[in-house]
Amino acid sequence: MTQPVTPPANPDVTIRVGSAPCSWGVWFSDDPRQTSWSRFLDEVAEAGYHWIELGPHGYLPTDPARLTDELARRDLRVSAGTVFTALHRGPAVWDATWSEVRRVAALTRATGGEHLVVIPEFWRDPATGEHLEPDVLGPRQFADLAGGSDWLGARLREEFGLRMVVHPHADTHVGDETTVTRFLDATDPASVSLCLDTGHYAYCGGDSVRLIETYGERVGYLHLKQVDPAVLAHVHAEGLPFGTAVRRGVMTEPPGGVPDLPPVLRAARALDVDLFAIVEQDMYPCPPEQPLPIARRTRRYLASCGA
């Protein structure tokens, strides 16, 4: 494993490191196996982070005044909200999509966030592996995905002042190098930026450094994550869905996996733009005492990498 190398100092570039509820085993708005929202906020602050994502809508308090107060008491701030969308299903679903997205967008904006992370819908059930749709979009569906993304990004900017960052994700139609670059080439840079999740991109066979160096002007946000290559090999060999892969431990604590994060951070700093870099280590479900020690070690590790 390459040792951490501090990127060259650049006083004009700020990488704001944070964490997210999924690093505490949170995938749903309400699940008895998940860490409580108050414990998550206490522990993410205790681990040394000052920025968080909202996670699934309804997990954290949805009253803006209450949530702002809870965050302020712990010296925390919001970097982004998150939504899943199925824009490839065409304009017939876009109005319904907006009614869901606007709830998250409003809370994100009201609590000071400036980004909305948009994840394409799964093509197979993440728990059972049941195929819900073909894993490759046809021309009409892809055109609807690109057009819908442009529409949604422009509307979020105009109505909420939010920057939409689309998150390539395992078991979705935007995941590997081919689908990511095709999607970026087909969408409007003024409306659609990229949330580069280093773990999901590696899961799908992508090279994060090469993507930053090639499409850096589209990278508006980072998720820092690693995968265990040995577990990943079994996942691909067995054709496992994402939820099963997570339970197998495919997402691992840095620096024990891939990609190596110091080169990613160096490439990101070379863009000369301020970025959020939000730590995500999917562990659903997990024992309540597991996340905090990992979060502390990960924060120390990233500090050793200059982040």
From TrEMBL:
> What are the boundaries of the signal sequence?
none
UniProt-listed SUPFAM superfamilies: Xylose isomerase-like
Q: Which domain of life is it from?
A: Bacteria
Where in the numbering of this chain does the Xylose isomerase-like TIM barrel domain appear? 41-301
Instruction: Indicate what this protein is called per its UniProt record.
Output: 2-keto-myo-inositol dehydratase
Q: Which organism is it from?
A: Streptomyces marincola
Q: What is the lineage of its organism?
A: Bacteria, Bacillati, Actinomycetota, Actinomycetes, Kitasatosporales
